[in-house]
What we know:
Helix content: 25-40%
Number of domains: 1
CATH topology: Rossmann fold
Largest sheet: 7 strands, mixed
CATH architecture: 3-Layer(aba) Sandwich
Shape: globular
Strand order of the largest sheet: 1-2-7-6-3-4-5
CATH superfamily: HUPs
Amino acid sequence: MIGFKHILCPTDLTPESDAALRYAVALAGAYEAELTVLVTHPDEREWAGLTSCEIDLRKILVAQDFSIESELALQLAISLAQEYQTELHLLHVLPVAPAPVAADLPPGLEYDFHRAARALQRSIPDEAHLWCKVVQEVRSGQPYREILSYAEENEIDLICMGVHGAGFAMRALFGSNTDRVLRQAPCPALIARPLKPASTNNGWKNDSPRERTAG
């Protein structure tokens, strides 16, 4: 009997590529497969050779919100970083307004910053530091804006994200933050989505006093 465990679907978000994405979504739902979507843009920085097929991947960004979906994106990013010896950037965005530059952070927000930073450190296997440079940062504000700003500022080659949703319907495939990142990113984006969500995520979700970043 035929079966699928992992499906990769490239798309440029044009109407012409919608059919392929619909088939990928349908197959993933039918066979309970993990679905990974690679989104490309016509004006992005290129790191894949057009004729040689060589990959010059240097910096990977993971938008980490400590959900099972972003954990899957992190594992994909770690594998790519190991394969191509790239820098691995982890970014967590607290969905709150940033404090004025001259003012101290409110006690609750400062606590969230420190706790998110510790969770980012725990999410990376110790051995990863042996073969790649790991950069971690916590920001606050609109998640999609901070992700796009970070990608621009650091010349990121690939953004890895997880997406949330109750089903595999097209409208549930990408959340609002993810959709904005996909359409405005300066580089390709790799979107990971498991069929069945899990209930644990590095201990962050169970005791977080604030809402985690939505995909």
